[in-house]
What does this fold into?
Amino acid sequence: MLIEFNKEYPDIPFELFEYGSIRAANMVMEGKLDLALVNMHFYEIDKLNSYKLMTDKLVFCVSKEHPLAKCREVTIDMIKDEPVIMYNTDSVQNETLDAAFKRINTNPNTILHASQLFTIRNFVCNNLGGAFLYASLLRNLPGVTGLPISPAITQDIGLIWKKGSYTTDSAEKFINYAKNRSF
It folds into this structure.
């Protein structure tokens, strides 16, 4: 989407930052970011303007050689002892997963907190652990098998921007551009 937006609006400069959704939302509320693409499952979402772009499912990713790779789906109970790579601690996804593990009275066996897909993919492909990723990411991760989680864990992904404050013309154009795209 960013590439197409840049082609359509080449005179609009933008600078990207990679943050977890919690940190990004706080930065939007503080006026440090104009807008952010986030996992919308956090408790302060109502304090922001938002637009849902898509709903995605989490899958548990393992290498093609991993014993679980043959499964049609997994449950949190099946993977409770597996070493896992989680996103950084400012990720809404971690809160969602922590709650899923707590429902079966355990915690994830976290071996790494990471934000870079390249790092996560390398850990997974080298059988160092499994990772919870969005199903939509799998097409860009060769060597990784994504197993549906039962019951399914869905997450809404969308744009957020500050309520009650001036939205720049550039940010407004991007918001409208995103609203007119299908994902």
Observations:
- The chain has a mean pLDDT of 94.
- The two ends are 9 Å apart (CA to CA).
